[in-house]
Design a protein that fits this description.
heterodimer; A: alpha+beta; 5-stranded antiparallel sheet; 58% helix; B: 157 residues; alpha+beta; 5 helices; 7 strands; transport (chain A); protein transport (chain A); ARM-like (chain A); membrane (chain A)
Chain lengths: 1190, 157
């Protein structure tokens, strides 16, 4: 504190922290947060004290503790206190909640295991009422998601909603940032985002938000690249806004604008190039960092057309620029810009060389070597430029003294290295070789660094040989001898050099020349022979050439030279069994064998790509014929290999080159060399299997706490509920109260008799529960409690897992659950992302699932299904989801007919809170059994309805009367129940009632397990005279969009006094479309949401010219007979809603003007809609007053 | 996430430091020294952001005090600037036109305010009112303590 070391006081600090006085406590925690760190040993002592403070009554005690903890949390503390902080997540005080939320992040970092159990709560906090808590939760999840985005993809809908509804800029920024991290994983998300983001960009006045939006839009556009038709508009918008930022007088905005611009540049260079003027302006900015940003941008903005202009501008800047750092940066940028992409943008190399020479005039640069290497590179690879380059270099050499100036922090003399070499190597192009030679022998040269002097010596000899040959050709022997003398005179200054190499070379050269002079004095011609010393040309060698040397046939580099010692391999095998790690080794071995194959393939691919590129690149650079000196690598071989291909392209290239006056021959050679060499791009070097996508994670420092947080959160809810429900300390140690629902029960049955007793108790509990439920069914709390039940029951398998096997089983179940769960969630996000086929998809998917699994799924599956459902319910409130859930449940209940009695009770408890009407109907309906149902109280669908019977006559004769009613099963998509009331009208006993239906393709009578389609179903009761009983029959239906007419027979036996007679009764069972309708919905929002969502694609209108009923009467009629709900009624118009058991929505708008009734219908299914409208028509049209069921 | 926050004067005196990532003291000192050198050398007209190692530094000068935050690469600079400003506003409200001396003599208050604004490097409360309310309530608690202690000393309790 205050810069003094107070580590000695650590213990005293803790004493102060533990004081009961807030003043001391506060100060103590402050001191601790400032001075403690991970290694502070006394921290171990604080655990209990902090826990006490966290649970303190005084919120500020807890606040201080959390603030402190956030600074010095260690893995130990995190582990021990995670649960206490988690409890605070649900504190009633927002002040504590928000601190706890933020603190959780720190805890996650130290103790990743805490993430899984805490995540659900954290997620809940996204919808916290307090904006502070909400934004804290967003912060934390955003932070988490940025590190491991894929685990948080499922939260996208929640965030999307927050984004579109929130006005808190602090939070919006985080959310948008989060989306920026998510979009690369899910391009469809990007498409969904573009619109709200562009809206925000347009509307917001906050620069920080604007900047964040632009950043994310850029990220989005990068991730979806070309998928969007109108993305150029968004880019345009971004660039426009950025321009405004850059033009702003605020330096910060300018800086950020340029920064963001450079991101766009990578993918959309065109749009940025339009703003070249602006960027060039920024080069004049006072702020260096802004200038540097602008330079970065320029790099990407150059093209062939504007390169010269830009570089000229930069050169001007360089003259003005103060500060060597910036000047250096500028210089290297110029070179980068020019040389990028293999000199792609340079059209005139003479210009480039002159630029390079010009640059050498800049004082005090440290990039001398860079310039030198550019000079060498260009001179070697662009033969056409050589003569020009040589002349320029000669000038440089002449003016060497200017460059040598002050050698401190100035490396420009390096260019002399290049100049000397170029002049020597291409001496034949020198206009005045002798003059250059003399320039190189100036005494000032000895000031140069040794490696340059070495090059000087070597090239002096080269030049000498050239000049001598020339003089001899002119027969000017005296001159030639004089030159030799000059050298002999001057070279000793190199001989005296301290550097060994210079000495060595100089001595050699000196002796050589002395020898030559001797020969010359004998009158011999030495020029020719001398030149032979330096004949041949150096070719550029591709960086990876060495590696490309082909392996001679018959040589297997992977083969063992010696047999590996047998011991080690056996040891390895043993290890393989014992240690997991040795897997790694095995893999490596495998890789080694794979390698040759892969690289070859890859090579071939690259080679092709490269050739393609070359063919399209007019600026492809050439060198000349390879020969002797390139012997190090066998370049001839490559020539042969690729010779053929290169020749085909030769002509084309030649034309281009010949304009610049290049030799044809050299081209083809160089061409082939390049094509072989350049093919070899780095990747061969990479270890096998290392994909670029893995890299990020792999490269992440193993110490990085975020790596540990890469937890698949899809698995969360399960463990989480385990944990949350019990005391959070130990998820496995709790004994839950004995409430079960069916799946646990089933599981337990399988587990054996052991738990039989417990079960009976549970059943009792359950029925009690049921009663309670009924009483409070109208209260909202139902929902909560039923969820609790479900959660508790979920926990059961864990807590009841007494034997090891069952524990095992549980584990398996869990796994399976997780898998299913993940899938469910994925489905869900898919669903969210593709709104267009929303209502159809889940159904069809489900249908497929159902039909593909005729065998009852094991209860493992049921479990998972249930989890999935629950998950879905949490994720979205859309009705389809819940319906799906119901369907699933129904399926489940079907599959467990034996136990239906026990089970459906608990099912009902879950369903009941959602809809009162359904609940009331449920007891009878949910039982698709053929047992006689007890007489049922029928509740009308719509409260306004008078209690009336929906039963219709099915068949009647003198003995029997059958009336029926259809009922939907609230959670089944492919079943309805027909309830038939049998009335014995005669005075005799009736028995052996049998009921049969001629199945159609679409609708089948569920006949139980034996499954013969033709068998009739026995009605399991007899009717004494004058009695009535009810039987229920389930029908499997495929499609529900058409009304159905089923033929059936009913046989019975009348036991008269004189014996018994068989009687038969034929009937037709009419199943109108409305029989499949569930006339209920959850909220009014759903209706408006539905209408605005655009899912209701089908439209139809029904117009009835004359309706005799009152409007309200008519509504009641529709509601009653066709199972609709009135959503809203205003005067003489009303909107009605219903949905089929297969999840198709139907919305009707009924309007009455005078006696004319118009019904506009919208639905997700057009056939369904027309069927239902027909039905309504028949229902309401008095002229055709034929009851649809007769 | 904020990595740390430093307050220092024009003369290079560190006035306040808050580290949201634990470092040993030695490294803290080193970082501070380096940053001080870099930031003090910058001219007033220069922009408030610079890239430093793998972090981004956002700083702003208020009178003679520099407020400097280090953030992750992908954090929003402007938002950080906003946080700094919010903090300065809070200090100003709390002390009543704050000056460097206020922070020197009441450094613990400055820390408390910062702790209410930020927690673990994340913004905790964006409402100035709420922060000040929390601070005031805690100060009140302290005063109660002080009164109690005083009474005890006088033997009245």
């Amino acid at each position: 504190m205050l810069g003094y070391d107070i580590s000695w006081a650590a213990f005293n600090i803790i004493e102060v922290m533990s004081s009961t006085k807030f003043t001391f406590k506060r100060t103590g925690y402050l001191a601790a947060s400032q001075s403690f760190h991970n290694e502070t040993e006394v921290l171990m002592l604080t655990t209990n004290m902090i826990r006490k403070d966290l649970n303190s009554q005084n919120i500020y005690d807890a606040g201080a503790a959390m603030t402190g903890l956030s600074c010095f949390v260690t893995p130990d503390l995190a582990r021990d206190l995670a649960n206490d902080v988690m409890t605070l997540l649900s504190s009633t005080k927002p002040y504590l909640r928000k601190k706890a939320v933020l603190l959780m992040y720190k805890i996650f970092l130290c103790f990743p295991d805490a993430l899984r159990p805490a995540f659900a709560r954290l997620k809940d906090k996204l919808e916290d009422l307090d904006p502070g808590v909400q934004s804290a939760a967003v912060n934390v999840i955003c932070e988490l998601a940025r590190k491991n985005p894929k685990n948080y993809l499922s939260l996208a809908p929640v965030f999307f909603k927050l984004m579109t509804s929130s006005t808190n800029n602090w939070m919006l920024i985080k959310i948008i940032k989060l989306f920026g991290a998510l979009t690369p994983l899910e391009p469809r998300l990007g498409k969904k985002l573009i619109e709200p983001l562009t809206n925000l960009i347009h509307s917001t006045s906050a620069m920080s938000l604007l900047y964040e939006c632009i950043n994310t839009v850029i990220a989005v556009l990068i991730s979806i690249s070309s998928g969007m038709p109108n993305h150029s508009a968004s880019i345009q918008l971004c660039v426009q806004k950025l321009r405004i930022l850059i033009e702003d007088s605020d330096q910060n905005l300018k800086y950020l604008g340029l920064l963001a611009m450079s991101k766009i540049l990578k993918t959309h260079p065109k749009s940025v190039q339009a703003h070249k003027d602006l960027v060039l302006q920024c080069l004049d900015d006072k702020d260096e960092s802004i200038r540097l940003r602008a330079l970065d941008l320029l790099y990407g903005m150059v093209s062939k057309k504007n390169l010269m202009e830009i570089v000229k501008k930069l050169m001007l800047h360089m003259d003005k620029a103060e500060g060597t750092n910036y000047r250096d940066e500028l210089l290297s940028k110029i070179i980068d810009i020019c040389s990028q992409n293999n000199y792609q943008y340079i059209t005139n190399f003479e210009w480039y060389v002159s630029i390079l020479v010009e640059i050498t005039r800049i004082e005090g640069t440290k990039h001398g070597a860079l310039i030198a290497s550019q000079m060498l590179d260009v001179a070697i690879r662009v033969p056409a430029i050589r003569s020009f380059a040589v002349s320029q270099m000669a000038v440089l050499l002449d003016n060497a003294h200017m460059l040598v100036g002050n050698t401190q922090r100035n490396s420009i003399y390096e260019v002399l290295y290049a100049a000397a070499w170029i002049c020597g190597e291409f001496a034949e192009m020198l206009s005045d070789p002798r003059g250059t030679l003399e320039a190189m022998l100036k005494p000032k040269v000895t000031v140069l660094p040794p490696h340059i002097q070495g090059v000087y010596v070597q090239n002096i000899v080269k030049l000498y040989s050239r000049v001598v040959a020339q003089l001899e050709a002119e027969d000017n022997k005296e001159e030639a001898e004089a030159l030799g003398e000059l050298l002999v005179e001057k070279l000793p200054m190199f001989v005296q050099n301290a550097n060994l190499e210079v000495q060595d070379r100089a001595c050699g050269a000196l002796q050589l020349i002395k020898q030559l002079i001797k020969l010359q004095s004998k009158g011999e011609v030495i020029g020719e022979e001398l030149q032979a010393l330096f004949s041949g040309e150096l070719n550029p060698v591709a960086p990876k050439a060495q590696k490309k040397v082909p392996v001679p046939e018959g040589l297997d580099l992977d083969q063992w030279i010696n047999e590996p010692p047998s011991e080690s391999s056996s040891e390895e095998e043993v290890r393989g069994d014992i240690f997991v790690k040795s897997d790694h080794r095995m893999i490596q071995q495998n890789d080694v064998h794979k390698m040759p194959e892969l690289t070859e393939e890859e090579l071939e691919k690259r080679r092709k790509a490269r050739k393609q590129e070359q063919a399209n690149n007019p600026h492809y650079l050439k060198a000349t014929t390879p020969s002797g000196k390139s012997g190090l690598i066998s370049s001839d071989k490559y020539l042969q290999v690729t010779g053929n291909t290169s020749k085909s392209r030769k002509t084309k290239k030649t034309r281009k080159r010949s304009k610049k006056g290049k030799s044809v021959e050299s081209e083809s050679d160089e061409d082939s060399i390049r094509s072989v060499h350049v093919v070899t791009i780095t990747e061969g070097e990479m270890p096998e299997g290392a994909k670029s996508s893995d890299d990020d994670e792999d490269e992440r420092n193993s110490n990085d706490p975020h790596k540990a947080l890469n937890i698949d959160l899809e698995e969360l809810p399960l463990n989480n509920e385990d944990n949350v429900q019990s005391h959070p300390v130990s998820p496995l140690s709790t004994n839950a109260p004995g409430k079960v629902n069916l799946k646990d029960e089933k599981k337990k049955k399988r587990r054996g008799e052991k738990e039989h007793k417990e079960k009976t108790r549970e059943k009792k509990d359950k029925s009690r529960e049921k009663h309670k439920k009924k009483k409070q069914k109208e209260e909202d709390t139902d929902l909560v409690s039923s969820q609790l039940i479900e959660e508790k029951s979920k926990e059961e398998p864990v807590t009841n897992g007494l034997s090891p096997e069952s524990a095992d089983k549980n584990e398996q179940t869990e796994k399976q659950k997780n898998a299913e769960n993940t899938k469910g969630q994925l489905d869900d996000i898919e669903f969210w992302l593709s709104p267009n086929d929303s209502s159809q998809r889940p159904n069809s998917e489900l249908g497929a699932k159902v039909s593909s699994s005729p065998v009852p799924p094991s209860d493992l599956n049921l479990d998972s299904v249930k989890v999935k459902q629950e998950k879905e319910e949490k994720m979205s409130s859309k009705p389809e989801k819940t319906k799906k859930k119901k369907k699933e449940k129904e399926r489940k209940s079907k599959k467990e007919k034996k136990k239906v009695r026990e089970h459906h009770d608990s099912l009902l408890q879950e369903d009941s809170p959602k809809d009162k009407a359904e609940y009331e109907e449920a007891p009878g309906i949910a039982t698709p059994s053929k047992e006689p149902g007890s007489s049922l109280a029928q509740t009308p669908m719509t409260p306004s309805m008078p209690p009336a019977s929906k039963y219709r006559l099915l068949a009647e004769d003198k003995n029997m009367k059958l009336i029926y009613e259809t009922r939907v099963l609230p959670n089944s998509s492919n079943q309805i129940v027909v309830s038939i009331i049998f009335t014995n009208q005669c005075g005799y006993h009736v028995k052996e009632l049998e009921f049969n239906i001629l199945d159609t393709l679409n609708t089948r009578l569920a006949r139980g397990t034996d499954g013969n389609n033709q068998n009739s179903v026995k009605v399991p009761f007899q009717l004494p005279p004058g009695t009535t009983n009810e039987g229920q029959f389930a029908f499997d239906v495929d499609k529900v969009v058409m009304p159905q007419m089923l033929r059936g027979t009913f046989t019975y036996m009348i036991v008269t006094d004189g014996g018994s007679t068989h009687e038969k009764l034929d009937f037709k069972l009419h199943l109108p479309v409305s029989a499949y309708f569930i006339g209920s919905m959850y909220k009014r929002d759903t209706f408006t949401e539905l209408l605005s969502s655009g899912d209701l694609s089908a439209k139809n209108t029904l117009i009835l010219e004359r309706v005799d009923y009152e409007f309200s009467h008519m509504l009641s009629k529709i509601c009653f007979h066709c199972h609709f709900t009135v959503v809203e009624q205003v005067a003489l118009s009303a909107s009605l809603y219903s949905r089929s058991i297969q999840g198709d929505h139907v919305c009707l708008l009924a309007k009455q003007v005078n006696s004319k009734l118009t019904i506009d219908g919208k639905s997700t299914n057009s056939q369904l809609l027309s069927s239902i409208l027909d039905e309504v028509k028949i229902l309401l049209n008095p002229t055709e007053n034929v009851s649809p069921c007769e | 996430m904020l990595q740390f926050m430093l307050l220092f004067s024009r003369q290079g005196k560190l006035r306040l430091q808050k580290w949201y990532v634990a470092h040993p003291d030695k490294q803290k000192k080193k970082i501070t020294r380096e940053l001080l050198a870099i930031l003090l050398a910058r001219k007033p007209k220069m922009c408030s952001f610079l890239e430093w190692k793998d972090l981004k530094i956002v700083y702003k000068r208020y009178a003679s005090l520099y407020f400097c935050c280090a953030i992750d690469q992908n954090d929003n600079e402007l938002l950080t600037l906003e946080i700094i400003h919010r903090y300065v506003e809070l200090l100003d409200k709390y002390f009543g036109s704050v000056c460097e001396l206020d922070i020197i003599f009441n450094f613990e208050k400055a820390y408390f305010i910062l702790d209410e604004l930020l927690l673990g490097g994340e913004i905790q409360e964006t409402s100035k009112k709420n922060v000040l309310k929390a601070i005031a309530a805690q100060d009140l608690l302290q005063e109660d303590d002080a009164v109690e202690i005083a009474l005890k000393e006088l033997g009245l309790v």
